[in-house]
Design brief:
The chain has about 180 residues and is mainly α. It contains 10 helices and 2 strands, in the order βαβααααααααα. The chain has one domain: Serine Threonine Protein Phosphatase 5, Tetratricopeptide repeat.
Amino acid sequence: MKAIFLAASAAALFATLPAFASPSVMTIGGSFAEGCFEAAKHRNASMDTLRTCDYAIAAQPLTSEDTLATYVNRGILRMIRKDYPGAEADFVAATAMNPARSEPWLNLATLRLKQGKSAEALPLFTKAIELGIEEPEIAYYGRGLAHEDVGNLKAAYADLRRAAELRPTWGEPAKELARYQVRRP
């Protein structure tokens, strides 16, 4: 079975700021791990889907990449359910398995932002960007929100503009940018 990292629709991820989740990770092969991916993709954070993820991790033979993917996906489901300690444990486990994968870092950054820990989220969003996240506009958008939360409006504006440039059809960055007034000295 081969793990494929797949970013879900950015519009769906950030449709409402308090309830967004970051890219989920897909596994191929009709397994419990794939069921966990589908649940994260469709934001179906029921207890049944969490049990599917648990089973995939605990009882199903998975490659290291599929295991990492399933931790990310279960973390997304836990984040949706506001089980922040569980989500953090899953994202940290995924970063430890492969620190060069950007998706766990992006999700950990998203978790920090949702927890109101924007200063902690900033370097995590940056790390996801530096590692080459598949849809960098999501990381720039999240980092822009975090910059705004800590009072760095210039950096927030720059990141939101970058997110809008990277995906012009995505309305969320434009909506956030509309709140800004740029004045030249």
